Amino acid sequence: MQLVRTPDQFDVMVLPNLYGDILSDLCAGLVGGLGVAPGANIGENIAVFEPSHGSAPKYAGLNKVNPIAMMLSA
Asked: Could you give the angle at the alpha carbon of 59 between the alpha carbons of 53 and 61, nearest 5°?
């Protein structure tokens, strides 16, 4: 609740996998939804950037998916 009401009070949050996933979905909702949220997994030697919702391959060619999350991840 505090993240939604006063997000400026948080700089870094370290969470286990399940709560991190829930929190990232909440934050994506605050900025427009999962369709516009880029994602990054950054390690010591490698980093992977992808849309938070995935690339949605089942919708390829159907003109249904907003590509902005993929573009922001790039």
From this structure: 135
61 is written with which tokens? Answer: 């060619």
- What tens-digit pLDDT sequence spans the chain (74 residues)? 888 889 899 998 899 989 988 888 888 888 888 788 888 888 899 999 988 877 677 888 888 877 888 888 88
Residue 41 is which amino acid? Answer: N
Q: Distance (Å, rounded) from C-alpha 54 to C-alpha 42?
A: 16
Task: Name the amino acid, one letter, at 54.
Answer: G
Distance of CA 38 to the CA centre of its chain: 5
What angle is formed at CA 67 by the lines to CA 65 and CA 71, rounded to 5 degrees?
Answer: 165
Across the strands, what pairs with 13?
none
Neighbours of 48 (CB within 10 A): 10
